[in-house]
Amino acid sequence: MLFLIIIRGVVQGVGFRPTVYRIANAMGLHGYVLNKGSHVEIVVDERPRELVNGIARSLPPLAKIAEVDIVPVEHLDAEEREKIMTRFHSLMEKKNAFHIVPSTPGDADPNMPADTALCHECVGEMLDPKNRRYLYPFTNCTNCGARFTVIHALPYDRDRTSMHDFEMCKECLSEYSDPNNRRFHAQTISCPNCGPEYTLFGKDGKKICSGVEAIKTFAKELDKGSIGILKQWGGMNVVAILEKAPEVRNIIRRERKPLAIMVKDISTAKKYAYIDDYEENVLVSKERPIVLLRKRNGRTLENISPGLDTVGIMLPYSAIGHLLFHFMEHDAIIATSANPPGEPMFIDNSSAFKIGVDYYLLHNRRIVNRCDDSVLKVFEGHKLFIRKSRGYVPSRLRMPIETSIDASVGIGAGENVTVSLLKNGIIWTSQYIGDSKYYGTQLYLKEAYNKWKKYTGIENVSVIGADLHPRYATVKIANEIAEMENCRVVRVQHHWAHAVSLMVDHGIEEVVCLTLDGTGYGEDGNSWGGEVLHATFSRYSRLGSLYPIPLIGGETAVIHPKRIAFAWMEASKIDAPLFDDKMSNFLRKAMKESPLTTSMGRYLDAISAYFGVCSRRTYEGEPAMMLEPYLRQGRLLQDLISAFDNVIITMNGRKVVDCRDVAKFINDTVMMKKYSTEDIIYTAVYLMIASLVKIGAEFALEKNIEHLGISGGVAYNIPILQMFIAETKRWGLKPLIPNNVPPGDCGISIGQCAVGACSDINNAT
Questions:
Q1: What residues are labeled active site?
Q2: 414 in a domain, yes or no?
Q3: pLDDT at 678 over 80
């Protein structure tokens, strides 16, 4: 009797078929294995369950089994049964008992592997003078290397990747065909004789040299202080030694925004930052993200992340990263995205020359999928993704409930855009796209949507979830796609999407959630961002918020947060000397016509400006981020908060944290001149967080909801997370914080996609 085994999961491009081949042969089975696009198909003549168990025990490092189905072939319909029987008997006429057969198209399913850091074996071979891949920058095997960034389509075979441009030499073909070789069926296999290569160009765009000499020369010039562009797997980086940070900032026009650094190894990382065991595990993981770590040497790194007590560090993930440090004297370099602010990272060699640097080290393998480095913080065993991209994409999450809509899409908000698509109960989320107000990013978003639609095999989209904001470019793009696809657009309030993304993350159907960020267009036309919501997939209600204050001049106040501090103090009837009389009178008049905000992010900006921490924003989140070290050093002024025990009032039917009382606390304690700035800041923020938790907790307890969640960009602030968790537990509830879904706007598309999938019963209140 023949048995058909269908295995779904991450089973393509990870050495899965070779593993099946070896185990089946060891068991003496007859049959075959092949890729079918969305899954791997195995046919054997006996012991199918024993084979599956053997595969599960011997999974390659990158493989993941999601589902297994075993069906006797005789139970299949006549056409499928005949096809399998014919293939089986044809193969049995050949010498071997078990075979790997060429892939065939099947149902699309983007369970393709993510780009994975070079394995230890490949690093060792690359640095071994006796090995034929000595110093070869495209060394990889079935357990490591570029995957997502080179794949055109599934099934994952060489002719569907950008390695199709490079024909295997005799030696590589021999390794590829040898079941006992680590590169057996490694689709991106190559060597110096047949694979891609690096070429070094000068600032005039003229070729200098190629191959190993190009890498050596580039490394030597970096050591001397030159600034270069390095083409990696999924895009390009501007690279330089740490001392050249001011020059790098001038070139890429990033006045104060933190720069990432790449270091030689984990021991070097510990020289620059404090690293606990979990952070170390994430740093050395196969994903190799940029991890935000506490600075150990603040003076050396001040120009890397000005005003912050953290620095973004990653270890080399590609062969070229290892080779640079092999040739360099320095043990750390700046490695930040090569793109104009807000625009997508460059991937074409010709585009690299648009950024004027000293040298360009570029390779000749096409980048199919642009993919920025992932960035995250680690908190108590959770990954707080700021940017979930290289190493973690494709990303899949299961919808906690069944939906009547077959396929839905979430298109993101304004900044930090991603696109998410739902099919068969699974939400797939793209790599990081960027800031949608830029035309280049809009083109990239449309391109990513079309590619992911192809990867998922979605033919007809039923609904697209888009933000409420009337001026977001993503809304326009959603309408364009809807017209083209003949489907509906569902407008999803920004903070509802945040709350729903947390529900998907934790696999729950209902949540009371603090959604705290910089801005999100509210149902009332104002800027929300300090909200307590009760949310399901089909509706939400606004239980409470922070007190609304004017954003004097709108976006001007965001850039100059001292205006927000002024409005807050004025609303609290406090005469704070933040501006001279002329400017103060002007701002008082402007307040009357200014939009209102309830944003926690804006309140943090105001505190930052009030205490002189940051009075001008040069990048998203800067004033609040610079406040975090003060919160980390502060303590609760327990003896003073009793007077502010209840700062919750009722406005327009909802509970509101009266931040005017918080302003009075700040003013009173500053006037006392006996408490540290850090303690005043900590206690003021605590009063707001504790009050928001109280609003949410009282409702949750009344409705027998056992948990309280937090999402939005403020959830990246570790001291605030600690306040939230402590207060939530004090109410006897389980705190939910993000782990698989970015708490910031990179996670918005997931919430939009999920709400869209339930839009036949949606009713926002």
A1: 17, 35
A2: no
A3: yes
